[in-house]
Amino acid sequence: MKFDIIGDVHGCLTELKSLFTKLDYAWQNDLPVHSDGRVPVFVGDITDRGPESIETIRMVYKLVVKEKLGLYVPGNHCNKLYRYFLGNPVKERHGLETTIEEYKQLTQPEQVDVKQQFMELIESSPLYHLLPEANAVVAHAGIREIDIGKTNKQVASFVLYGDITGETLPDGRPVRRDWAQDYNGDKWIVYGHTPVHEPRFVNKTVNIDTGCVFGNKLTAFRLPEEEIVSVPSTMPYIEDKFRY
Predict the structure, then answer these.
(1) pLDDT, tens digit (0-9, with 9 covering 90-100), for 152-185
(2) Residue ranges with strand state E in the chain
(3) Which residues lie across from 172 on neighbouring strands?
């Protein structure tokens, strides 16, 4: 089986569609389908900050849950939206406010439908995906080798938020350790979460969040080919959002 692992979309649906076209997917019933049966895998954070979070939810839901043509793992932004839909108290900032604004523009029946779709997407998807056919693991913010196969609270925190120190940056973002430097496993760890100018390869890990929503590009990592494919962003470029 062959996979196209897609970095953080953040509501950038135009770029997502362009990426699928560049990856040689054809459009059938408004969904991307590859003639070779390739499987798209979303690395999480499909919503927030970008212009079309609701339509992105609808597409990913149809692709992953309804038609079973793709795979998905949640990111920290996905987790926060899920908690919002559960009715839990969450702060509407760091991008969540853009998705909520879109959501509130919908009719009541549409809101019910989108909420149900997103919650089903989250609840039917694993914390991270093991892809034995490609000798890979897809986890939103990465995963330590010793934690592969585990799903406890500590692993969930790492997978969703990265290797956080407990400290925060001036803008409120958590300080994260560069866990990939210590990874010595033989499986590919494909992740996103931290925007980088170019796909960042460290040991057998690759960060493919190339900051589409911050004006850089949207990236896919193809396995088993180990090939990078990207499309440029249409969003304004914000330099200070990139770590590397």
Answers:
(1) 999 999 999 998 777 777 766 677 789 999 999 9
(2) 3-6, 25-28, 31-34, 39-42, 71-72, 129-131, 136-138, 164-168, 174-176, 188-191, 200-202, 205-207, 217-223, 227-232
(3) none
